[in-house]
Amino acid sequence: MTSISLRIPENVIEDLKEIAPSLGFSGYQGLIKAYISKGLRKDLEKLEGSQVQAITESLRKQGVADELISAAIADAGLKTA
Q: Are the beta carbons of 40 and 53 closer than 8 angstroms?
Protein backbone atom coordinates (compact mmCIF):
# COMPACT_ATOMS: atom_id res chain seq x y z
CA MET A 1 0.00 0.00 0.00
CA THR A 2 1.00 3.60 -0.59
CA SER A 3 -0.19 6.56 1.44
CA ILE A 4 -1.54 9.55 -0.47
CA SER A 5 -3.08 12.85 0.47
CA LEU A 6 -6.38 13.70 -1.14
CA ARG A 7 -8.54 16.78 -0.65
CA ILE A 8 -12.23 15.85 -0.44
CA PRO A 9 -15.04 18.19 0.59
CA GLU A 10 -16.16 17.73 4.21
CA ASN A 11 -19.77 17.03 3.23
CA VAL A 12 -18.60 14.17 0.99
CA ILE A 13 -16.58 12.67 3.85
CA GLU A 14 -19.62 12.94 6.14
CA ASP A 15 -21.77 11.19 3.53
CA LEU A 16 -19.15 8.46 3.14
CA LYS A 17 -19.00 7.96 6.91
CA GLU A 18 -22.78 7.69 7.03
CA ILE A 19 -23.18 5.16 4.24
CA ALA A 20 -20.07 3.01 4.83
CA PRO A 21 -21.53 0.86 7.65
CA SER A 22 -24.71 0.13 5.69
CA LEU A 23 -22.52 -1.20 2.85
CA GLY A 24 -20.48 -3.41 5.19
CA PHE A 25 -17.45 -1.16 5.62
CA SER A 26 -16.03 -0.39 9.04
CA GLY A 27 -14.90 3.06 7.89
CA TYR A 28 -15.14 5.51 5.06
CA GLN A 29 -11.60 4.94 3.77
CA GLY A 30 -12.39 1.37 2.77
CA LEU A 31 -15.47 2.62 0.94
CA ILE A 32 -13.38 5.19 -0.94
CA LYS A 33 -10.95 2.44 -1.97
CA ALA A 34 -13.87 0.27 -3.14
CA TYR A 35 -15.35 3.13 -5.19
CA ILE A 36 -11.99 3.87 -6.82
CA SER A 37 -11.35 0.21 -7.53
CA LYS A 38 -14.80 -0.29 -9.07
CA GLY A 39 -14.44 2.74 -11.32
CA LEU A 40 -10.94 1.76 -12.34
CA ARG A 41 -11.98 -1.79 -13.26
CA LYS A 42 -14.87 -0.43 -15.32
CA ASP A 43 -12.60 1.97 -17.23
CA LEU A 44 -9.94 -0.71 -17.77
CA GLU A 45 -12.57 -3.05 -19.21
CA LYS A 46 -13.73 -0.31 -21.59
CA LEU A 47 -10.15 0.40 -22.63
CA GLU A 48 -9.42 -3.27 -23.17
CA GLY A 49 -12.61 -3.64 -25.20
CA SER A 50 -11.78 -0.66 -27.41
CA GLN A 51 -8.27 -2.00 -28.00
CA VAL A 52 -9.65 -5.43 -28.91
CA GLN A 53 -12.11 -3.73 -31.28
CA ALA A 54 -9.30 -1.75 -32.96
CA ILE A 55 -7.19 -4.89 -33.44
CA THR A 56 -10.22 -6.80 -34.72
CA GLU A 57 -10.94 -4.12 -37.35
CA SER A 58 -7.29 -4.05 -38.39
CA LEU A 59 -7.20 -7.84 -38.81
CA ARG A 60 -10.43 -7.75 -40.85
CA LYS A 61 -8.89 -5.14 -43.17
CA GLN A 62 -5.95 -7.48 -43.64
CA GLY A 63 -8.28 -10.29 -44.67
CA VAL A 64 -8.24 -12.39 -41.51
CA ALA A 65 -11.47 -14.39 -41.19
CA ASP A 66 -13.88 -13.48 -38.41
CA GLU A 67 -13.77 -17.06 -37.12
CA LEU A 68 -10.00 -16.87 -36.60
CA ILE A 69 -10.29 -13.48 -34.92
CA SER A 70 -13.01 -14.73 -32.59
CA ALA A 71 -11.01 -17.85 -31.75
CA ALA A 72 -7.91 -15.75 -30.96
CA ILE A 73 -9.89 -13.39 -28.73
CA ALA A 74 -11.45 -16.33 -26.88
CA ASP A 75 -8.08 -18.08 -26.56
CA ALA A 76 -6.57 -14.94 -25.04
CA GLY A 77 -9.48 -14.64 -22.62
CA LEU A 78 -10.35 -11.13 -23.80
CA LYS A 79 -13.74 -9.44 -23.97
CA THR A 80 -15.04 -7.45 -26.91
CA ALA A 81 -16.55 -4.02 -26.46
A: no
Is the Cβ–Cβ distance between 31 and 60 less than 8 Å? no
The Cα 16–Cα 32 span in angstroms is: 8
Is this model's pTM higher than 0.70 or not? no
Question: pLDDT of 37-62, one tens digit each?
Answer: 999 999 988 888 888 888 888 999 99
What ranges do the domains of the chain cover? 38-81
